[in-house]
Fold Transglutaminase-like domain-containing protein.
Amino acid sequence: VRALYRWITAQPVDMMLAPRNKPSTNKPIYHIWAIKNSEGNYSQWFSKLCRAAKIPCVIIHGRLKGSSYQVGQSVFEDEHYGEWNAVLIDGVWRFVDAYWGAFKSQNRLESRSSSHKTLTYTCDENYFLTDPSEMIYSHYPEVPEWQLLQYPWTINKFESCANTKDRFFELGMSLDSHKKCVI
């Protein structure tokens, strides 16, 4: 699982050339083509790699507090839909988000006349085997069992919780008080 995650997050998909015509689905270039043509995504690609390696893996569908999320807003399925994976390791399901893991940072260069985004492809370890108690702050599965929490959250709790990012948990921080995004 580690090797697959590191490999897939190291692929600069946006910079890669892909054929104009749809390649055969059994060829590796198909997954690059599918992502570039909005017919596939990282979770599907990761899942196929896991299946080829005989690693149990599922695609989880849900809502994300990603780059388009504004603090305090409702997290609508059509605007905030996302997919990520769970893999079975030693009898325990663990989370992997290869898409979020592929982009450690975004640099924004702004001038008066235009704005440019440069994606930096650097593996973000925070999305490899992420603890469910941390993942729930940004990823809300459609099926409550895939929260992997003893006490699953409701969508209302997810929407109202503080908007913490992965660095918050990376620094070993936690919320002892003021757990809502709007106070």
Notes: DSSP finds eight helices and seven strands in the chain. Strands lie at 57-64, 81-89, 92-96, 103-110, 115-121, 128-130, 139-141. The longest helix spans residues 42-52. Residues 1-171 form one domain.
